[in-house]
Amino acid sequence: MNVVPRRDPDSRLRRLSPGMSITMDVDPRALYVPAGLALSAGKRYRLAAHGKWRDGAITCGPEGLGVRLADSL
């Protein structure tokens, strides 16, 4: 179900109800990208990431650099 989440009392944040999802693009050049979501203590959330980006000659995905970084040095 992909619907617009309701706004949290802090108008800069969105709160997801059970079963809702949100998709957002993230600029890999940014050091910090706020998601703009309010999470509730004791609730479970599932996050997924897709895509690739390049850091110099190293191509990386959501799995991170891991042992590939050590192998490339």
Most strands sheet: 2 strands, antiparallel
Which residues form runs of ≥5 with pLDDT under 50?
none
Strand content: 5-15%
Strand order of the largest sheet: 1-2
**Residue share in helices?**
under 10%
Apparent shape: elongated
Secondary-structure element order, N to C: EEEEH
What is the overall number of helices?
1
Structural class: mainly beta
How far apart the termini lie comes to: 44 Å
Taking all residues together, what is the mean pLDDT? 78
Rounded radius of gyration (Å):
16 Å
Q: How many beta-strand runs?
A: 4
Write the layout of secondary structure elements.
Blueprint: E1 6-7, E2 14-15, E3 53-55, E4 58-60, H1 66-72
What keyword list fits this structure?
mainly beta, two-stranded antiparallel ribbon, two-stranded antiparallel sheet, 1 helix, 4 strands
Overall description:
- With 73 residues, the chain is mainly beta.
- 10% of the residues lie in helices and 14% in strands.
- It is built from one helix and four strands, in the order ββββα.
- The chain has one helix at 66-72; strands spanning 6-7, 14-15, 53-55, 58-60.
- The strands form two sheets. Strands 1-2 form a two-stranded antiparallel ribbon.
- A hairpin with a 6-residue loop joins strand 1 and strand 2 (14-15).
- The chain is elongated.
- 0% of the residues are buried.
